[in-house]
Design brief:
Elements lengths: L7 H28 L3 H5 L7 H37 L14 H6 L7 H21 L12
Length: 147
């Protein structure tokens, strides 16, 4: 198994950065959950909501869930990076086992892939989405002719 080329002090600094980001995310999650709209809070229990009001509240709730999911994903990646520090594999690409560039880790300390592998993964995701869209494209309906 390869070892990271990072020095002890670099790993220590990056670990502190990861822990700071983790705290920030947890604070953000609490703020999102505290501010998350609900039909009862939005309405104040005073009058029945009409469909337009319900649509606005539902849209706000979906937006909050999207933000929470994004934060949850980043939190999972940070936790994985912290685990890899403990295991001694931090800074190694999980795909090709090469070292991840120090500049990349400074920018995204929870990065799991080197830049080359990250680009390949994005291209593969993009290609699979394009293929999925093409497979699920509805068939054209025949034109109706009026007599």
């Amino acid at each position: 198994m390869k070892r990271s080329r990072l020095t002890y002090s670099e790993i220590k600094r990056l670990k502190a950065k990861l822990l700071d980001k983790r705290r920030d995310i947890l604070d953000t999650v609490v703020k999102i959950q505290d501010g998350m709209p609900s039909a009862e809070r939005a309405n104040g229990f005073s009058t029945p909501m009409d469909l337009e009001d319900m649509a606005v509240v539902n849209n706000d709730i979906e937006e909050c869930y999207g933000l929470l999911e994004s934060e949850r994903q980043t939190l999972a990646e940070i936790d994985e990076a912290l685990r890899s520090i403990e295991e001694g594999t931090y800074g190694l690409c999980q795909r090709c086992d090469d070292s991840i560039a120090k500049k990349r880790l400074q920018a995204i300390p929870w990065a799991r892939y080197c830049l080359g592998c990250a680009r390949q993964i994005e291209q593969e995701k993009s290609a699979s989405k394009t293929g999925a869209r093409a497979r699920h494209r509805p068939a054209r309906l025949p034109r109706l002719r009026w007599a």
